[in-house]
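Methods — Computational structure assignment.
A single polypeptide chain was analysed. Its primary sequence is given first, followed by the predicted tertiary structure written as structure tokens.
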Amino acid sequence: MSDIVRYEAKEKDIVIIIDRDLCKGCDICVEVCKPTALELVDAPDKWEGSVVLVKDIELCNFCRLCEVQCPDFAIRVLRKAEEKEMTLPRESKKTATE
């Protein structure tokens, strides 16, 4: 079962989905994010010790560099309509506020 966190922009048509189980905290996505929408945070529940999270989704410019550069496919950047076509494990999908 994956630990999936979903972030939805209020003012833009953007959804970012992060699978915390796939993220190894390598920091590549944070480095390529020029608008600085992402950040690496401590995650004592993960053996790697850190994971990425969305600091401010409204800063995202939908370039998808974070998604393309992630070596573990832990992050997805989508339009809201694209998300409806995705299949995610329902029991583990939660919002960033949970």
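Note: The mean pLDDT is 89.
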